[in-house]
Amino acid sequence: MLRKCVWAALVLVLAAGVGLAAQKEKKGQTAAGTIKNVDAAAGTLTVSVKVKKEATDKDFTIGDATKVVVFDGNKKKELTGKDGLKDELVKEGVAVAVVSDADGKVTELRVGNPPKPVTAAGTLKKVEAAAGTLTVSVKVKKELTDKEFKVEDATKVIIFDGDERKQLAGKDGLKDGLVKEGVAVAVVSSPEGKVTEVRVGTPPKPPATGTLKKVDAAAGTLTVSIKSKMETIDKDFTITDATKVIVFSGEDKKELAGKDGLKNDQFKEGVAVAVSSSPDGKVTRVQIGTPPKKKKEPK
After folding, report:
1. How far from 112 is each of 73, 184, 192, 217, CA to CA, in Å?
2. What whole-number distance in Å separates Cα of residue 99 and Cα of residue 97?
3. Are 89 and 155 within 8 A, CB to CB?
């Protein structure tokens, strides 16, 4: 009986392994390159793609259900099957991306280059949260000009305050106290002109990372050895009372503040450290040690 149970368990494990392997294998792929030849009547096209730095020609067959998306500047056309290949922009030399499923069937053909979102950066001149509008002073050819933008319900409003980040949406985002005249702002719009994202304030700089060389808790200073290109440089930082001090030790995490945080026994020479600063150079956060890796939840 015991032997039968063991064999049954082994079969289940092997079956699960095969199932997972099959799932991993069943992934589609995208081939990007330029059109070399197209035959709309036959529903075929040849694409010149780079494989290991060498150009090679690949043939694809377009089915009746294949989506054909054609980009022309800011315009986008959605067609289907062989009819999509008859479009005048589907021609030799044009950039193309062919999306295929796990079985090699072409599911989508993208012709031309998708338009990129447009970002207008400047300072906020006026905001009307109720109307969902904001006016931004931006530089156009070295001259300041005012541009008005309309925020949609789905527009992301991301607000940076030091190293804090808030994400709001639509008109409610414009009601935040930090959305005010004179603040730095960046407005991201789709090629069609719809505002998709508003960023308020200045994003924090990436932290300075290295190893701790010296710490003076009484003075509130620490020296960090940071690798810069081919050399290592020592950089001094001053901690304020408002500086957050995060200490990782194995699975444990402690949150301290200011000079008292530097008195922790983990602050010793050679330990990994990350120092975050505000745009004006004030140290906002010091992290000692390495955060524990997140455990993967069993599927």
Report:
1. 9, 35, 17, 59
2. 7
3. no
The CA distance from 232 to 54, in Å, is: 39
Whether domain 29-111 has CATH 1.10.260.40: the reply is: no
Q: Is the pTM of this model over 0.85?
A: no
Q: What angle do CA 232, 235, 240 make, to 5 degrees?
A: 155
Token pair, residue 176, equals: 């935040």
Spell out the residues 6+ positions from residue 114 whose beta carbon is closer than 8 angstroms to its own.
Answer: 71, 76
Q: Tell which CATH classification among 2.60.40.3200, 3.40.30.10, 2.40.50.320, 3.40.50.720 matches the domain 118-200.
A: 2.40.50.320
Q: In the predicted model, is pLDDT for residue 204 greater than 90?
A: no
142-176 pLDDT, tens digit per residue, is 888 999 999 999 999 999 987 788 999 999 999 99
Length reported for the chain: 299
